[in-house]
């Protein structure tokens, strides 16, 4: 059976129907200035926070089709800063990030899950100090002219050998480190 579109209105209606059923395409983004990647832990019961000043993010995402999303984050470990010179220099040593041997960490995820309250989960892999382990990043998404991804994760530092040796005592430094990020994005 052949359908003939003989009027402009019929052509417009056919195009609108085709567009309405076309799958949404993921948009590709890169990190924009003003983004943050932070961490928080305790040392002898005292809370401390820090940031990685050097990280870059690539994202492909469509909220209508989160299962097609991808995320790739590279993190310069030497850029970790807590505002305490002694702690910052210790983080660079072989007991912690070992930046002389492992300059970068990388987080990558493919295929996101939709959660309640317009939130999503990226079940990805963190590679840190040559160790690869699963880490889930939960995040919210704000679209618009400058999209924003705001996320949180928990990393078990001892699984990656971070804070080994004398620093492995979890009564001094807990195993779980809270990670938070606010990534401003621009089209790739």
Structure write-up:
- It is a single chain.
- This protein has 188 residues and is mainly beta.
- The chain has a single domain (25-187), classed as Beta Barrel (Lipocalin), CATH 2.40.128.
- It has helices at residues 8-21, 85-91, and strands spanning 27-31, 36-43, 46-52, 55-61, 70-76, 80-81, 104-114, 119-128, 131-142, 148-156, 176-187.
- Strands 1-4-5-7-8-9-10-11 form an 8-stranded antiparallel β-barrel.
- A hairpin with an 8-residue loop joins strand 4 (55-61) and strand 5 (70-76).
- The longest helix has 14 residues, at 8-21.
- It is elongated and about 50 Å long.
- The model is unreliable at 1-5 and 10-24 (pLDDT under 50).
Quick recap:
The chain has helices at 8-21, 85-91, and strands spanning 27-31, 36-43, 46-52, 55-61, 70-76, 80-81, 104-114, 119-128, 131-142, 148-156, 176-187. It contains two helices and eleven strands; from the N terminus they run αββββββαβββββ.
Write the layout of secondary structure elements.
Elements: H1 8-21, E1 27-31, E2 36-43, E3 46-52, E4 55-61, E5 70-76, E6 80-81, H2 85-91, E7 104-114, E8 119-128, E9 131-142, E10 148-156, E11 176-187
Antiparallel strand pairs: 1-4, 1-11, 2-3, 2-11, 3-6, 4-5, 5-7, 7-8, 8-9, 9-10, 10-11
């Amino acid at each position: 059976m052949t359908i003939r579109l003989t009027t402009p209105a019929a052509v417009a209606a056919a195009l609108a129907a085709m567009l309405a059923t076309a799958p949404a395409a993921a948009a590709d983004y890169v990190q924009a200035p003003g983004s943050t990647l932070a961490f928080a832990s305790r040392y002898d019961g005292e809370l401390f926070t820090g940031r990685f000043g050097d990280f870059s993010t690539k994202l492909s995402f469509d909220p209508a089709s989160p299962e097609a999303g991808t995320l790739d984050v590279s993190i310069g470990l030497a850029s970790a800063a807590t505002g305490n010179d002694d702690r910052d220099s210790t983080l660079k040593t072989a007991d912690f990030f070992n930046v002389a041997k492992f300059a970068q960490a990388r987080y990558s995820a493919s295929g996101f899950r939709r959660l309640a309250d317009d939130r999503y989960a990226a079940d990805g892999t963190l590679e840190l100090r040559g160790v690869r382990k699963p880490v889930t990043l939960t995040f919210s998404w704000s679209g618009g002219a400058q999209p924003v991804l705001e996320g949180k994760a928990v990393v078990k530092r001892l699984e990656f050998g971070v804070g080994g040796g004398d620093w492995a005592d979890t009564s001094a430094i807990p195993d779980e480190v809270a990670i938070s990020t606010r990534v401003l994005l621009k089209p790739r």
